[in-house]
Design goal:
The protein has 444 residues and is of the alpha/beta class. It folds into three domains: 1-70, no CATH class; 76-253, no CATH class; 278-443, TPP-binding domain (Rossmann fold, 3-Layer(aba) Sandwich), CATH 3.40.50.1220. Helices cover 60% and strands 7% of the residues. It has 18 helices and six strands. It has helices at 2-20, 26-45, 50-70, 76-100, 109-137, 147-167, 170-188, 196-218, 221-245, 249-253, 260-264, 278-286, 297-302, 305-317, 336-343, 354-357, 379-382, 433-443; strands at residues 290-295, 321-326, 351-353, 366-370, 401-406, 426-430. It has a six-stranded parallel beta sheet with strand order 3-2-1-4-5-6. Strand 2 (321-326), helix 15 and strand 3 (351-353) form a beta-alpha-beta unit. Helix 12 (278-286) packs across helix 18 (433-443). The protein is globular. The structure holds NADP nicotinamide-adenine-dinucleotide phosphate (NAP). NADP nicotinamide-adenine-dinucleotide phosphate is lined by residues 77, 193-194, 196-197, 296-298, 301-302, 329-334, 336, 371-375, 406-408, 410, 412-414, 432-433.
């Protein structure tokens, strides 16, 4: 019975992933995920201590409900990072328990290798995800760490894995845990802000491999399969994101962080720029025949998507062509903007990905940039010393007029100045994205 439920659960997870890859089928994808998880929970009850499993589910479920109610949409990435850290920690604890409960005959080499690899990946996932959590919260920016230092710790870890496989003693396991925890810290501390999306996805992949490792340790087929699905899909997503940002995955994972402090410097104080009010923006928009709306993180924090949709609809009624341009890393998680625009019922056919919209900016009258910054920053193309150099951008600078809606002249997530604020065809519209867009709607 358990085997059949395992198989059905694995099939549901695969169907879930397949359906989640398109916005139109994503609800069905979620349903498959829920059904697969329900089968998995049933399997956990079959042949296990019912009361202990039940207590764990009640405690875990209560914490889950509390966290889900408290967390806002913009805090989701840091919550995901926090949850990844728990997967890593459980992998380490389960491997320790397996080691401690081994019978007097000791542990064979294969089991020792499973324990060592599970502990290594789990510990890296644990501390790495905690640092990612702090960075995504904005509580910690990072520090430079020389690459050779991380290489050195990686070599020590490799030696400790070999030592544990041969000796299977508690000293080598304790040292392996310690050095793997350290490597998790030192790998993520130097990662620059602009690379954090890739790192979150990479940690997702690590947590999948850690879960798969737990599956080997516990001889649980379902954990092996689902862990491998998460591990492989996280790795593929990281690769696709790196391609989208024109970065090498190896460069991101083994970052040295030399540009972290440099990028945080501001040099544009006291420069003059054009600023306008909601009425000025409404005037420009009303007289435009084509408008491209570029949402970013600020739209998410202020929840401006409904006001934007209203603005877009008014402009369309006026005969204006209205499109929405989405950068693959706009916001704080992949797909962040797509989800918010879908929530506001913006039609899918009006939403365009970077490659499909970039050529349209040159022929567009107004680019309305709402709470986006890094994803439009020309430094990514022009300044080789910039931490975002090489990342493709939405080329809003090519539009006849750019309206930049944000609260201040401050930098975005990567801490890099944006020269576009000072361009002759840019009008800064300073204020909260939602309130200001509502004012524009009233003025329209
Ligand atoms: P961004 O570069 O962080 O810029 C967002 C801008 O929104 C800020 O400059 C901020 O300026 C403005 N803002 C904040 N609150 C606002 C409000 N209430 N009303 C109006 N404006 C507001 O965001 P982005 O252009 O979307 O680029 C995303 C960045 O996040 C990239 O660097 C990316 O690498 C990184 N990242 C992405 C992901 C992902 O998966 N998508 C994950 C982690 C990190 P003011 O403070 O002046 O208002």
């Amino acid at each position: 019975m358990g085997e059949i439920l395992n198989l059905m659960s694995a099939v549901c997870f695969i169907l879930s992933l397949k359906n989640l890859s398109s916005a139109a089928t994503s609800i069905r994808g979620n349903l498959y995920g829920i059904i697969g998880m329900a089968f998995a929970v049933c399997v956990a009850f079959v042949g296990n201590n019912f009361s202990l499993s039940f207590i764990a589910i009640v405690i875990g479920g209560a914490i889950g409900i509390y966290v889900a109610r408290k967390i806002s949409m913009t805090q989701l990435p840091e919550m995901v990072a926090c949850f990844h850290s728990l997967v890593g920690l459980s992998a380490v604890l389960i491997d320790c328990a397996t080691f401690l409960s081994a019978d007097s005959k000791g542990i064979d080499t294969i089991t020792a290798l499973e324990i060592a690899l599970g502990t290594f990946i789990g510990a890296i996932t644990f501390t790495g995800s905690l640092i990612a959590f702090l960075k995504l919260r904005g509580s910690y920016r990072g520090h430079a760490i020389p690459l050779y230092f991380n290489m050195g710790i990686a070599v020590v870890n490799a030696l400790l894995i070999i030592a544990f496989c041969y000796s299977a003693n508690s000293v080598s396991l304790s040292l392996l845990i310690l050095f793997s925890l350290l490597l998790g810290l030192t790998l993520i501390v130097p990662v620059g802000g602009a690379d954090m999306p890739v790192i979150v996805s990479m940690l997702n992949s690590y947590s999948g491999w850690a879960a798969s490792g737990i599956g080997f340790t516990l001889s649980n087929d379902l954990l092996i399969i689902t862990g491998a699905i998460v591990g492989a899909s996280g790795a593929i997503l990281s690769y696709i994101m790196c391609k989208g940002m024109n970065r090498s995955l190896i460069d991101v994972i083994f970052a040295s962080g030399n540009n972290i402090s440099a990028s945080a410097q501001t040099k544009n104080k006291n420069r003059s720029f054009k600023s306008g009010a909601a009425e000025d923006a409404a005037f420009l928009l009303k007289n435009a025949s084509s408008v491209i709306i570029v949402p970013g993180y600020g739209m998410a924090t202020s929840q401006a998507q409904h006001a934007l949709k209203e603005m877009g609809d008014l402009l369309k009624k006026n005969g204006t062509s209205v499109k929405y341009a989405i950068h693959p890393v706009a916001g704080r998680m992949p797909g962040h903007m797509n989800v918010l625009l879908a929530e506001a019922n913006v039609p899918y056919e009006d939403v365009f990905e970077l490659d499909d919209i970039n050529s349209s900016f040159a022929a567009c009258d107004v680019a309305y940039v709402v709470g986006a910054n890094d994803v439009t920053n020309p430094a990514a193309k022009d300044d080789p010393s910039s931490s975002i150099y090489g990342m493709p951008i939405l080329e809003v600078n090519k539009a006849r007029t750019v309206i930049f809606l944000k609260r201040s002249m401050g930098t975005g997530y990567a801490g890099v100045e944006n020269e576009l604020f000072f361009a002759p065809n840019t009008m800064m519209l300073l204020g909260d994205a939602k309130k200001m867009t509502e004012e524009v709607v009233r003025a329209l």
